[in-house]
Amino acid sequence: MASGGGGVEEVTNKQVLFKEYVSGFPKESDMHVSTSGTIKLKVPEGSNAILVKNLYLSCDPYMRPRMKQPTPGSQAYIDSFKPGSPIDGYGVAKVLDSGHPDFKKGDLIWGMTGWEEYSLITTTQGLFKIHHTDVPLSYYTGLLGMPGTTAYIGFYEICTPKKGEHVFISAASGAVGQLVGQFAKLSGCHVVGSAGSKEKVDLLKNKFGFDEAFNYKEEPDLAAALKRYFPEGIDIYFDNVGGKMLDAVLLNMRVHGRIAECGMISQYNLEQPEGVFNLMSVVWKQIRMEGFLVFEYYHLYPKFLEFVLPHIKEGKITYVEDIAEGLESAPAALIGLFTGRNVGKQVVVVARE
Amino acid sequence: MASGGGGVEEVTNKQVLFKEYVSGFPKESDMHVSTSGTIKLKVPEGSNAILVKNLYLSCDPYMRPRMKQPTPGSQAYIDSFKPGSPIDGYGVAKVLDSGHPDFKKGDLIWGMTGWEEYSLITTTQGLFKIHHTDVPLSYYTGLLGMPGTTAYIGFYEICTPKKGEHVFISAASGAVGQLVGQFAKLSGCHVVGSAGSKEKVDLLKNKFGFDEAFNYKEEPDLAAALKRYFPEGIDIYFDNVGGKMLDAVLLNMRVHGRIAECGMISQYNLEQPEGVFNLMSVVWKQIRMEGFLVFEYYHLYPKFLEFVLPHIKEGKITYVEDIAEGLESAPAALIGLFTGRNVGKQVVVVARE
Fold first, then answer.
1. Nearest by CB: A277 against B261, B273, B293
2. β B88-98/B50-58 pair status
3. Are A73 and A87 spatial neighbours (Cβ–Cβ below 8 Å)?
4. Measured between beta carbons, which residues in chain B are less than 8 angstroms from residue A74?
5. Closest Cβ–Cβ partner in A75, A272, A291 for B287
6. A157 inside 8 A of chain B by CB
């Protein structure tokens, strides 16, 4: 598709464009796959940007709040998507051209990029260079990327686990949850996870080594279900869902329990969030509940890699991905997160190399 | 009222008896002042108990949950009152007789005692001996007792304040709140409190040195009120009330804010607690919300005294008490906490010496 002109190669650049701010449940049609764009595969003269070919894109729950119309205040921790522009998010990419001294042609990177075939990245500070390529490259959207770092920070820094403690994880087969459970087992904890299908529950028990797992959709009384799995209570709750499950967990926490507030996916598509009624437990049980955002902990990423790579090589940490093929499948893949359609980390392949 | 018999003086012992478990709003008639009891003013032979004359009794919000029928699980952090027996709680008392080597006749103590004229205390581990008597003795139910230690621990240990931070305190003129505000001012913070009457708001501003204060009952929109007082947000919230105020605070917290969960008095009399809807702020703003119970921090009481006594002597810390006279007034004094009738720390005088 190369076209001559000015000596710089220009190619078509398929993109997933964000159409308009979303309220309620997002739909595939809130995005649009466009093939009308073009891009020059060279960094503009004098710029310190890099030009990359996108390989793998990451679908993550935090992207839902980015679809909202920006409002001053409560949720402005990250910019909303810009209507008419490509979605952006975490991805793995290959450098085709670089105006930046830290990057050169052929480098592999992970970090924020566009939902398109090629991206000109002008803000390179947040990018990580990939040095270990003896693992699937797609892992840098999950196990070795933002979700993996989230699981590591959330579990070790926020939950302060001790051997023998009882750990509960919601959305436990997801990109983050499956790792938290495996980390907790490595730490000698008793680990129970919840997920939304039999297939996922089987994964938790048979692939990720959780002690127990249950399908929350089959539990009419979540508090009673938790009481069954934690007769003596929960020491650590790694919360990915918020809402009713959080409420049920509060009733089942132990004294001095810790709750890592990683996300609340059950709430992201509601016009009004659900009420949580059992916060008095926070007082009586001296619970610490703490929110965290992984971006503030990326200085610990090298420490995380040092911890996790040997475990991967020894087969002690495994990772399940749900791979969608091609940019055309990206809108459905992203929407699928919010119905729980994905099994494991949702990745979109744009190109394999 | 002494009566002979067995060589041991026996006297009448007026008591405030707890009648029956309470649901909903407690009433004076849930307690009964009895004059039919008697007590021997001697410790039984061979016992290591102490026999005390009660001087000042403390009315505290945590006593409301103790009126509930005990249920396994969520709120069993402290025993319920026993129907037919005297209410028990914090108080200041004088030792009349002692079978314990650590206590002798004439000692002044504070700690858990009965709502009665005289108490035989068999569990003496939790009692504190009073060494500083150049302050009003009633202060050992408040400023120098459990509420003072609560304010100290909650603010310094849980909130980890920094100079210049913006602090909000609810129930701010109460036994704990008035001290948190003064501690926060001593730490160089900007301090705003809420209370339920003009008189209390005036106290906050004119006596306790809060920068600002407001009457929450006159604010139809609590979130908007907080926005007015904290245009750049709240760094520290010392929560004494829970419920709607907590929900409004969550919307107004700053990134990395801290919430000390000291109590939720707005919820104690409700059959079902209110919902809190804005917990997503905990994630996005990386808020740490932590419950604490002062009993676990009493090893720091000497450190607290060392900190607070010089401030009292220099007039840098002041304390307002609401003193009810006589055991007969105790039921109304306790109930008054839940309507906010008290102005400052609610104390009941049984005897002045």
1. B273
2. antiparallel
3. no
4. 251, 278, 280-281, 284-285
5. A291
6. no
Distance CA A187, CA A162 (A): 7
Nearest-Cα residue of chain A relative to residue B158: A288
Q: What is the mean pLDDT of each run of 10 residues along chain A (353 residues)?
A: 58 97 94 96 96 98 92 67 97 98 97 98 96 96 98 97 98 98 98 97 97 98 98 98 98 97 93 95 96 96 97 96 97 95 96 93
What is the chain A residue with the closest CA to B283?
Answer: A291
Which ranges in chain A are annotated with CATH 3.40.50.720? 146-295
Handedness of CA B64, B70, B72, B76 (dihedral sign): positive
Asked whether A266 and A217 are in contact (CB, 8 A), the reply is no
Identify the CATH assignment for B10-142+320-349 out of 2.30.30.90, 3.90.180.10, 3.30.2160.10, 3.90.1150.10.
Answer: 3.90.180.10
Assigned token pair, B146: 């459990």
- Closest alpha carbon to B31 in B114, B95, B141, B140: B114
Torsional sign, CA A247, A249, A252, A256: negative
State the greatest distance between any 2 C-alpha atoms of chain B, in Å, as a whole number. Answer: 72
> Which residue of B281, B284, B288 is in closest CB contact with A290?
B288
Q: Cβ-count burial of A105 within 10 angstroms (0-12 exposed, 13-18 middle, 19+ buried)?
A: exposed
Minimal Cα–Cα distance from A50 to chain B, Å? 30
State mean pLDDT over B229-240: 98
Residue A61 C-alpha, separation from nearest chain B C-alpha, in angstroms: 13
Q: What is the mean pLDDT of residues B287-293?
A: 97
Q: Return the CATH architecture of domain A146-295.
A: 3-Layer(aba) Sandwich (3.40)
Q: How distant is the alpha carbon of residue B97 from its chain centre?
A: 28
DSSP lists the bridge partners of residue B349 as: B56, B325
Phi, psi of B181 (to 5 degrees): -60, -45
Q: List every span in chain B annotated with CATH 3.90.180.10.
A: 10-142+320-349
**Residue B216 pLDDT class (50, 70, 90 cuts):** very high
| Interface predicted TM-score of the whole assembly (ipTM), two decimals | 0.93
Note whether B286 contacts A276, CB cutoff 8 Å.
no
Closest approach of A271 to chain B, Cα-based (Å)? 12
